Amino acid sequence: MIYHIIKPFLLFSIILFSCSNPLYDDSEYIVPEKSKQELKDYFIKNRFNLNPIEGIWSLGVMRTLYKNGNRVAFESESHRMGLAVVKEGDLFRVYDVNGEPTNFIATFKETDELGKYDYQCHFTETKDYVSTTATMLGDSILKYKYDAPKGLMMKYYYKSNNKDSKLVKKMIEDGSMRLQWQFYWAQYYPYSYDRKIEH
Questions:
Q1: What is the pTM of this model?
Q2: Which end of the chain is less packed: N or C, by CB atoms within 10 Å?
Q3: Hey, what CATH topology would domain 2-194 get?
Q4: Residue 188 region, left (φ>0) first, then alpha (ψ -120 to 50), else beta?
Q5: Which helix (H) or strand (E) holds 6?
Q6: Is the Cβ–Cβ distance between 124 and 103 less than 8 Å?
Q7: Which residue intervals of 22-149 are DSSP H helices?
Q8: Residue 179: how many CB atoms within 10 A of its CB?
């Protein structure tokens, strides 16, 4: 059944997310990196002047697979990884909290609406791109959602030597099979009493 092809991707897909105008050309992405110490130094130095979205976050995700409009699978993780958000120019860039390299380039940008951010992500392996609106709930919760890009789905669903692959490929291409990612970020640094929010 198709689900036996799909299930492994549900378990693996979140490695390639949570996504800026990246520095790249047609053949190469340059993924920005900051070490764990650089991130620590930044937050200590700017502790009392951080934007609400800046800080260290725990990323949670809910993954829902749809086939022909019907939900066929659901999984969730309350904590997938730690991420840091740092202001760079007029963008807020996302880094792995431990300074590890990532396979995505992600940023947030403030909008005219309080608590709303434009979110953009480029996936470096498949060169997929997604954008959506992220919403801050209170001082410490951030949420947004989007469908997994077709390039990622093709990379991990489509296996040419599998008897169901042609059908899977067709369903991905025509949109009858889609995987929705819903992301929930919980901020655990800085604490609300540690920051001075400037409006």
A1: 0.79
A2: C
A3: Lipocalin (2.40.128)
A4: alpha
A5: helix 2-12
A6: yes
A7: 36-45
A8: 21
Q: What is the pLDDT of residue 5?
A: 47
State how far the Cα of 181 lies from the Cα of 18, in Å rounded to an integer: 9
Instruction: Tell me the pairing of strands 104-110 and 91-96.
Output: antiparallel
- Say which residue the tokens 């689900």 belong to: 3
Query: Is residue 197 classed exposed, middle or buried when 0-12, 13-18 and 19+ CB atoms within 10 A define those classes?
Result: exposed
In the chain (199 residues long), the average pLDDT of successive 10-residue segments reads 50 42 45 87 92 95 92 92 95 94 93 97 91 94 94 76 77 88 93 44
Q: Any idea which residue has 């989007």 for tokens?
A: 146
- Boundaries of every domain in the chain: 2-194
For the chain, strand residue ranges (E) read: 23-24, 29-30, 55-67, 70-88, 91-96, 104-110, 116-123, 128-137, 141-147, 177-189
d(CA 88, CA 150): 30
- Note the pLDDT of residue 19: 44
Provide the token pair at 122: 């480029």
CA–CA gap between residue 116 and residue 98 (Å, rounded): 27
User: For the stretch 99-132, what's the b/e string if a residue is b when 16 or more beta carbons lie within 10 angstroms of its beta carbon?
Assistant: eeebebbbbbbbeeeeeebebbbbbbebebebeb
Strand partners, 159: none
Lookup: tokens for 56: 């260290």
- Whether the CA torsion 11, 182, 29, 81 is positive or negative: it is negative
